[in-house]
Specification:
Helix content: 25-40%
Number of domains: 2
Distance between the termini: 56 Å
Strand content: 15-25%
CATH superfamily of the largest domain: P-loop containing nucleotide triphosphate hydrolases
Shape: elongated
Number of helices: 12
CATH topology of the largest domain: Rossmann fold
Length: 408
Amino acid sequence: MRIALSLWHNRISPLFDTARHLVVLEFEHGKILLEQEETFSSDDPVSRVAMLSRLGVRTLICGAISGSLASMIHASGIRTIPFVAGEREEVIGAYLANALEGPALTMPGCCRGRGRFGRLPGWTGEFRGKQNILDDSYGVTGQGGRDMRGGNRQESRGQGQGRGRGRRPGVGKSMVAVNLAVSLMLAGKRVGLLDVDIHGPSVPRMLGLRGERIGVGVDTLLPAEVGGIKVMSLGLLIPGDEDAVIWRGPLKMGMIKQFLKDVEWGELDFLIIDLPPGTGDEPLSVCQLIEDADGAVVVTTPQDVATSDVRRCITFCRQLKLSVLGVVENMSGFACPGCGKVTEIFKTGGGERMAREMRVPFLGSVPIDPLIAQACDAGAPYVKEYAQTETARAFVRIIEPILNLPDK
């Protein structure tokens, strides 16, 4: 029986589609008769399946697999044991002990980095320089002005913002994240944008990157670039909008760690991290991996049903000793496309009132503009395409305190 392990840096790759190496093992009566290493020459799904077939692999042990690639593997008669995390040797040991079958496939684990079959590798990289920011219902800021390449970060001047967001669904966190990143770029800063909304990555669509694919360097992933902004998202790795990513905690932790450590970011002033709603695995993982984050930018809408959830996100930040840099109230009033006048068609001021009651700064309000939806669907950054609108000017005001954050 021949099995194969998909690896990235001697551990199971969180996503088989981007695995760099393959270890092929042949067993007989529990003993290893053959062990050989192969390197994938391409990210092309057909070539990956062809390599598995050429090597006579009957079982593939891996992390997650995109839907279309999984179908091709299964059609080739190769069995998969997915959703596995851990170091190479401990996974082999678990397989030999028949511990990779049945319920173990769900990989129960906790956000502190322990998977079913051992501790996920720790990340010792640091953020140095000015600041990191979380955004959403909250956002995280990481320190920057450094070379982010491959875990060897070269200290330099500047600021880096990692912005993560813990918020209620539907308040426009990704839209705010994208336009804050573009606003910082227009202010002359070197910006990276990391989308860790694993189950619903929308940043590639908003930046016109649908259909784009990341490059693979020597032991690094190369981010996509648009308008001077470096972008990394799981949406750049999966084949289509219809493919669902069904992961539990350890796999998410592994992917976020890979995005932070193995992506060749280069020197950045700001790293904006766009997080999914809530206070779950993704924001916890980011806070643990970026221990010196400067703070969070919290995004809400004026309604009480939104601000009540955002209060929990602020409490979450405080419990993790993460500063809240401020609150952004999105969809606050309606900006007329003709005259620019802002009309309060819905209630406004809820975010500002909540910020005052929770004793955190209020960064500003972003009015509704129908052009925002058009720009997001077209992949054209709103603040760049419609710089003279009242809503675009709101973003300019919001980034002022972020630009003025002091060096640590």
